[in-house]
Amino acid sequence: MGEGGQNYGKSENLNGENYAPWSEDVGQCEEKYQVSREYGLSSSDVEKRRLIYGLNELEKHEGPSIFRLILDQFNDTLVRILLVAAVISFVLAWYDGEEGGEMEITAFVEPLVIFLILIVNATVGVWQENNAEKALDALKEIQSEHATVVREGRKISNLPAKELVPGDIVELRAGDKVPADMRVLNLISSTLRVEQGSLTGESEAVSKTTKAVSKDVDIQGKKCMVFAGTTITGMNTEIGKVHSQIHEASLSEEDTPLKKKLNEFGDVLTAIIGVICALVWLINVKYFLSWEFVDGWPRNFKFSFEKCTYYFEIAVALAVAAIPEGLPAVITTCLALGTRKMAAKNALVRKLPSVETLGCTTVICSDKTGTLTTNQMAVAKLVAMGSKANALRSFNVQGTAYDPFDGNIENWPVGELDLNLQMIAKIAAVCNDADVEKSERHHVANGMPTEAALKVLVEKMGIPSGLPSSASSGYNGVLKCSSTWNRIEQRIATLEFDRDRKSMGVIARSSSGKNYLLVKGAVENLLERSSLVQLLDGSIVELDQKSRETILESLREMSTSALRVLGFAYKEDLPEFATYNGDEDHPAHELLLNPANYSTIESKLIFVGLAGLRDPPRKEVPQAIVDCRTAGIRVMVITGDNKNTGEAICREIGVFGRHEDISSRSLTGKEFIELPDHKKAAHLKQSGGILFSRAEPRHKQEIVRLLKESGEVVAMTGDGVNDAPALKLADIGIAMGIAGTEVAKEASDMVLADDNFSTIVAAVGEGRSIYNNMKAFIRYMISSNIGEVASIFLTAALGIPEGLIPVQLLWVNLVTDGPPATALGFNPPDKDIMKKPPRRSDDSLISAWILFRYLVIGSYVGIATVGIFIIWYTHASFFGIDLSGDGHSLVTYSQLANWGQCHTWTNFSVSPFTAGAQVFTFDANSCDYFHTGKIKAMTLSLSVLVAIEMFNSLNALSEDGSLLSMPPWVNPWLLLAMSVSFGLHFLILYVPFLAQVFGIVPLSLNEWGLVLMVALPVILIDEFLKFVGRCTSGVGKSKARRYSKHKSE
């Protein structure tokens, strides 16, 4: 019974008084909460209580404020150094401003612009962090807990746990997380245990009871309470170990492998750029520190603090431009947005590193039922016993939906059910936890689809004419026949299904007052524990070897037709349970608390029949299997089903060929475990698909362990509590969203919302695409930044006037690294993304070849920006483009490289030139031609840098693919981002105030022609490098294929 909220066992404030439900018996609790367990709360009650008690969720704590986030953006050494440089520049401007004149305002422009750009950078950083946080919050919302609740006499599945109110009647199953503090009203399970160590510190799962305890007992003593956040285990499992693993994982969230690689690369990059910055500063020492040699010793030192600060600013701005500080935030945003994209495709990624690991997956170990098949179960064939022990009767069952009126049973004796058919119907109805509801359009199953299909079979079978009609009165659901059997046969204990004995049993009390056991499960297992068989007329005879073979032959026949087969049996002689009525004080109750006793209780059974259920393969799975094969991913099917059924389905979906010999590739879990270690490893290394049938959770763990030891990256599916260790052990644990338990989901890295195998394959493709996109903008940002470093370094090394000032460098960094880098995260996947083998998980982020490409492109960026600066000073035209239209004077390269000696040159004069509406004259000082006169050359350098980096973003669309195969318009966001960046650049060029701030002037059409001519070759250079890369990788792949073929031979 829901307590609402999460008080962890404290007295609840109910109607203004403290109430301790654990100290009251069940009837008193129902009376206090004004609810009955059969009907639950009404809608009006729920609304009233929600207004009083609010939502059933923990109080949300506010995250850091926007102001705090902005301050955090300045928590970076380089940014702090730049701030110090800007402050010094501001102080110098203030000092110069005291002298008055026109320079008073313009002197403040540079430090103010640096401040402004840093604030804009911080704003972008905050926006990226907020985006990542919102995306993560959305994922958490998708993964929120749900509960099964009884309201207004109806069972509601998947109600969000936060909507529970005090008084709600909640149904819990093994593997569920408890959604609120609750009083136990009724125990259907005989072995209810709860793992509550995370709350109480208890090392083992504890048993629960319905009996009241003392009011002042401690939390461990509240045996009739379950607490929010704890887990229902049902029976002995490895859940305690899993919980501790999950808890440890939650305490230490590691950086993703990609982030670690980026951090390592960043450290190396920082060191290299630090050295380059120091060199740039030292090369320019002559401009702010000079001396004369007197008697062989340096004397008369002259130091310009203003110029020293200026070159210090250039060095620091160079570092800021070169190191992509915002990369971690961009990475997180890309991963988080990528996971939202995957969520839209029904793959809910619980941990961001999983996105990277998905792209490396080499083996997918998939369950069959519900993952490769639809899990829309329907009984297709019913086999009952005949008049003799070795004679069977077979009935074909029509219909494929959960609608009881969808088809009927061929040649069925309506209303005239013999005793054997009655017993089958009774077992199928009573030894069953499922339900079927009618929604607006169709019928849906609540619980296991297999069990729901059996209840639909019971409806199609009907009830014998001799049963009292009042038995189903008052029931208004769709399962009237099942309801009748459950009223006649009162269920008093449950022996839960487990994958070792592969059966489920219930102890029921008949209308005559006698207790007996009803069992359903795997046919082979039931036959092993059966000694008798019930015939058509209800008589019991010995189950001899001939009868066994007849039943097993029928099983094989159905299994090879891809039917999942369940057997039915019962037991009348239960001496220990003859007087058992569900009372916890009864001596027999102790036997039910230990699942190890179940096989003994379920022995000496009377076998009554079997049913074959059809679970057709999902129509999209065969293509997904083909895609896996093309992508170099092996598929292993691990199922608890019969070997013949598994093989039939595997042939149907393409894991095996239709007529392929699969004797070496299809084993039962038991056969595999019994192999020597070297043969196990050899079996798992076989090419093509592999099937493990009748597999248990421990077999899954062994398979995962061996695959990982051989270097495979393993994705493993699972749904049960006992699957959790295997899911945790796998590189990618994949839980089922529909059939999966909360424990399995919590242990997993990814949850399939639709339980569909093709969703896994789509997620692998998406994971590869996301990783490629991250590499795309890393490739773009780093190659562009290397270009900026090369530009400044070349300028300093050649001794020419600096072509880019700190303000411009920061602007380029913001404009070029911002919109295009973000847009590259929206690249569509390469056409051949699922035709390439998986990348190795330890592959370096940047290979030697890619680094070489970065350096080549970066060097070209440096040469182009410095080159156009030199061209303007030294050439009247270049490749037919006339540059003399503005009237500027030409100088030799030697003069440009030695511009610092200009004051010693004789007869050096220059003509005025125009730039936009401005005319620049140098009558007073011709050497000023290399200071204020460089404004046009600087504008050309800046424009080339912006243009070249825009074109370089097109290169980053694909690592190896040509722009001919992946044209720019495949990512319209990138074209939009380029347009925005160019638009911003035009803004500062053609708005006079902004042009003055950034120290640039408008360009003519001829000059823009030169800019484009110098910038466009960056595409051709990278296209050539990509071609070389494709050729060399093609040779590598060819060698690898030859080696692989030789190895297999």
TrEMBL record:
Its main location: membrane. GO terms for cellular component: membrane. It is an enzyme of class 7 (translocase). Residues 1-22 are annotated as: Disordered. Residues 20-94 form the Cation-transporting P-type ATPase N-terminal domain. GO terms for molecular function: ATP binding; ATP hydrolysis activity; metal ion binding; P-type calcium transporter activity. Its EC number is 7.2.2.10. The chain crosses the membrane at residues 77-95, 107-127, 268-289, 309-337, 845-873, 938-957, 969-991, 997-1020. Pfam families: Cation_ATPase, Cation_ATPase_C, Cation_ATPase_N, E1-E2_ATPase, Hydrolase_3. It is a multi-pass membrane protein. Keywords: ATP-binding, Calcium, Calcium transport, Ion transport, Magnesium, Membrane, Metal-binding, Nucleotide-binding, Translocase, Transmembrane, Transmembrane helix, Transport. It comes from the Eukaryota. It is found in: Membrane. Belongs to the cation transport ATPase (P-type) (TC 3.A.3) family. Type IIA subfamily. PANTHER family: CALCIUM-TRANSPORTING ATPASE. This is P-type Ca(2+) transporter.
